[in-house]
Write a structure and sequence with these properties.
The chain is α/β, with parallel strands linked by helices and about 290 residues long. The protein has a single domain, classed as Dihydrofolate Reductase, subunit A (3-Layer(aba) Sandwich), CATH 3.40.430.10. Helix content is about 25%, strand content about 20%.
Length: about 290
């Protein structure tokens, strides 16, 4: 793996001294709010802002194609008490067929795993957000509890649906909302109070991120810009995936796949740091 070239960095100092920071340089975060976690996101995107080719190459790795980007994901996970994920991301990545019973969103780099321990973090945790809660938990390895703790955030109706249909050992279920939609503001407060989460990493997908941002809950974003141009409309020759057949749309997603803002309420961001490795750009932004 190559070392990151620091172009500028106005972020906080690292909370501990450790050689694991060597390839990247310093990385620290402000104190978390009292009422909710400090929430930061991480996405890789193309030059034209696309995060997925869709079809049979829908994973973010197909956009980034960068060993350093994958390593940075682990560095950010090392500082997070939990990783927040939309259940559609879990389902879509499972349907790519690369891993039996789907992915487990966990750290892989041994040195960064040791850094996580040094930072005093508990066992890794995946938190999945789903309003409908129609998934069969036994179909996904992440809910086995073998590698990470798993939590499902859903509505009252979703929690009832899970209780009625599941024979698989339950992960912890947190209720935030009534019928169809999870209340993300309530979710943030519950994660802080009930699970003690101070730093929460959102890894997508774009719909969950978009609604978090609309609710004013995203404090920071880490953006990897990959030197590839993709185009938002999928070309007709692209082979469709199961996810494409289930939710047909010609449009590839951007990082923000939810209703946006007006000129009067659009949030502006401070550019906190910028690094490069070859032709890839790694930036950090903090909401003003």
């Amino acid at each position: 793996m190559r070392k990151f070239e620091v172009l500028f960095d106005e972020g906080e100092a690292s909370p501990v001294e450790d050689a694991a920071y060597g390839p990247y340089g310093r990385l620290g975060f402000p104190p978390a709010p009292a009422a909710r976690p400090w929430i930061f996101s991480n996405f890789a995107q193309s030059l034209d802002g696309i995060v997925s080719f869709k079809g049979k190459h829908a994973a973010g790795a197909d956009i980034s194609r960068s060993e350093e980007d994958r390593w940075l994901m682990d560095l950010l996970r090392a500082h997070a008490d939990a990783v927040l994920i939309g259940v559609s991301t879990l389902r879509d990545e499972t349907e790519l067929g690369q891993r039996p019973r789907g992915p487990v969103f966990r750290m892989m780099d041994p040195e960064l795993c040791r850094l996580r321990q040094k930072l005093g973090k508990r066992r890794e945790m995946n938190i999945f957000v789903t309003g409908a809660a129609t998934l069969d938990l036994s179909a996904f390895r992440v809910f086995d509890g073998e590698l990470v703790d798993a939590v499902v955030v859903t509505t009252k109706a979703g929690a009832k649906r899970l209780a009625e249909k599941q024979t698989h050992p339950h992960p912890r279920v947190i209720v935030a909302g009534e019928e169809r939609f999870v209340d993300l503001r309530q979710t943030a407060g519950l994660l802080r109070r009930e699970l003690g989460i101070e730093y929460l990493l959102c890894e997508g997908g774009p719909t969950l991120y978009g609604y978090l941002s609309r609710a004013g809950l995203v404090d920071e974003k880490f953006v990897t810009v990959s030197p590839v141009e993709v185009g938002q409309l999928a070309p007709p020759e692209q082979e469709k995936s199961v996810a494409d057949e289930r939710n047909p749309s010609p449009y590839r997603p951007t990082t923000f796949n939810a209703p946006g803002f007006t000129v009067d309420n659009a949030p502006w961001w401070k550019w906190v740091s910028c690094r490069r490795v070859g032709e890839h750009q790694f930036s950090r932004y903090r909401r003003k």
